Amino acid sequence: MCIFEPFVADEYIERLVWRTPGGGSRGGPEAFDPKRLLEEFVNHIQELQIMDERIQRKVEKLEQQCQKEAKEFAKKVQELQKSNQVAFQHFQELDEHISYVATKVCHLGDQLEGVNTPRQRAVEAQKLMKYFNEFLDGELKSDVFTNSEKVTHFLPLRGKKSKCKYHDLECQLIQEFTSAQRRGEISRMREVAAVLLHFKGYSHCVDVYIKQCQEGAYLRNDIFEDAAILCQRVNKQVGDIFSNPETVLAKLIQNVFEIKLQSFVKDQLEECRKSDAEQYLKNLYDLYTRTTNLSSKLMEFNLGTDKQTFLSKLIKSIFISYLENYIEVETGYLKSRSAMILQRYYDSKNHQKRSIGTGGIQDLKERIRQRTNLPLGPSIDTHGETFLSQEVVVNLLQETKQAFERCHRLSDPSDLPRNAFRIFTILVEFLCIEHIDYALETGLAGIPSSDSRNANLYFLDVVQQANTIFHLFDKQFNDHLMPLISSSPKLSECLQKKKEIIEQMEMKLDTGIDRTLNCMIGQMKHILTAEQKKTDFKPEDENNVLIQYTNACVKVCAYVRKQVEKIKNSMDGKNVDTVLMELGVRFHRLIYEHLQQYSYSCMGGMLAICDVAEYRKCAKDFKIPLVLHLFDTLHALCNLLVVAPDNLKQVCSGEQLANLDKNILHSFVQLRADYRSARLARHFS
């Protein structure tokens, strides 16, 4: 096969030029000759025209040949179509002839059957009359009475004299079925079962089959697995024996549930029902779960029309006496268990829970404390103990989680939301009120007054642990309670109760944090009072000041940094910024008021500026723009203590001080030792 490259005119001409003598352009003996090249082009064009004519004639010849062959092919196809039509006509004639013959054969068969059927009935009637004669005479000689293999072909007899024989035959057939089952002869079992279908004792035959199926079936320690294997085995076999396999299998399952499983469940639950509530609930949950799992496996089998209802009734018949009062047992156990967990914790701390009052007086104290932030009653020294334990919380949540799981499994769908709500209220009572709320109340009582010296502030530790615990509580609410109540009216009730608990706790946390911040400010005030001297800002020797900032400033900054770090470790999210902003504002107010107490010489003013610069550096740790802005402004105000009198107005109109009230500016200028000089008063007026 020849493969032609695509024709490119430029390349073709280029090759032609190079082959032609005198067509080159590089000089030499044969320099470029345009006439010779033109002549070569003309000759070559003529050759191409001749070649084109030759190829065109060849194409026309091939087209004519192709048209001729197409006509011959079309003619041949027409001939084949005619032949096919003739063959189809012959096929139709043959089909009609076969149908005619088949009709004749069917008619002949009907005639033969019309003759043979009466004859066969007459023969069977003769045999039956013979059997009746033998039965009435009492001499049973025929094979149908004496051979057990033939008895299955004997039809049930009727009448007074046949009752005894009817019963004997029925017993013989059942015995034969039993023997065949023990031998594993499925075909014989099927024959006998088909005959017994016409007897009253057919149900007894099914009972015998069910009883023998269960012999040796329960050899393992797991009765539920044994029952599943038994039903799978019978399901494969029962269709080969009985004409109504779904009824027989359903009766077997009913027998397993009502006898074997019910007896097993009763033995497992009754012994611990009154003595051990925890074990009783665990066993009830486990047995009910395994029973429903078995029911799910049995759903694969054909048990009739409504197998779901059938299996549900069987499960209910086993557990109804236990499920009726399940929630009472559950809530009673959960309360006692939760109380024991809490008491065991407080005992380990050698702590006797103090009674948190309720009623009108306590409510009045609470309202006063919220509005005035005053500590009502004596302060309690908790020795740094928060009385919150994550171990206790995990135990309470684990017990409640298991209770929710049991509630989901064991409660009737109509009772599920109400039962879940009861469990939730117990969790709220023991976790939120008896543990968290008690710890908050104890923590509030342990916060010292704001004028206490060297007070240990442990309430932030309570805040940290309370936040962690409440996150765990909220997670369980969403993960385990919400799915149980999400589509019921109890949802809004639970959300409302949760909201009330959150608001109550947040109120106490806010109160405790506020009082703790007051204590922090009180500690700072005590440091400033004890460490700051009047001579710090008005030294006797102006030329002999060697310190960069005062000792009071150093101690206050160290204390503030420690408290800031503690706040950051105790809280999360926006709460950190909110508390730090509040502390920063109060810190600024304290320093502002503190500076207002002194009179400043020129060198003392410089030292005050250095102190404020250090306070500002400390304020940067807050990472709160407002706090930093306050200290920047305070730093600018301190410049009024040292600026030359002639420059006071210029400094006051600067960017940081221009928007401040004139009284504030005046109050700082008045702190200067040289304020009363006429020159200074004149410049500032």
Automatic annotation (TrEMBL):
Keyword S-adenosyl-L-methionine found: no
This protein's record includes keyword Transferase: no
Classification via InterPro entries: Sec10-like (IPR009976), Sec10_HB (IPR048627), Sec10_N (IPR048625)
GO biological process, one term: exocytosis
Coiled-coil portions: 45-83
Domain Exocyst complex component Sec10-like alpha-helical bundle per the UniProt entry, residue ranges: 165-684
Family label: Belongs to the SEC10 family.
Descriptive protein name: Exocyst complex component 5
